[in-house]
Write the structure tokens for this entry.
Amino acid sequence: MGVETTILAALMGLSLASASGFRVFLPPFLLSIAVRTDTLVSLDLSDTGFAVFDSNAAVLILGIACIAEFGAYYVPWLDNLLDTIASPAAVLSGIGMTSMVLVGSDPIMQWSFAIIAGGGSAGIIQATTVAVRGLSSTLTLGFGNNIVASGENIASLVLTLAALIAPLLAAIFAIILVFLLFRQATRSKKIKSV
């Protein structure tokens, strides 16, 4: 894998990981479709641990999981419960997708970047969505959570499609988003400690 290809793959992975912070199953579902149909993404996963993503079964299972996840976030009490499962799952999804798109690069770079950048960006975004949903649940008794869920669904879809179509632009947006969310979180901690 050449340097330019590796950089583009890393940017795509970072963007997909960030999208996983909003929804766990949508980014791997769309990535699996892209790999299976050999459109937008050209990955040879046949001799890797990710070969299952290039199958009809993966597309079907991830599609069902994606629909179930989207629907579950519109149920007021279930959305908060789902966050306890989605938080670690988003980090794992971010790591997995980042590593998947970097298949063929140096394994140390592949997994280091996947764990630090992929898992980190998914975790920061997921933690923020949990906080926003918690605030919405408190202020609106859960009635405003549908608006939060819709925003997360749209953000995940747009960021995933952008990652597959224009990884550089998607990564720039993802980096800015993660930076702003991280800055806001650290600012909130400073205010609480005062």
User: Anything to note?
Assistant: Residues 36 and 55 are 6 Å apart (CA to CA). The chain has a mean pLDDT of 88.
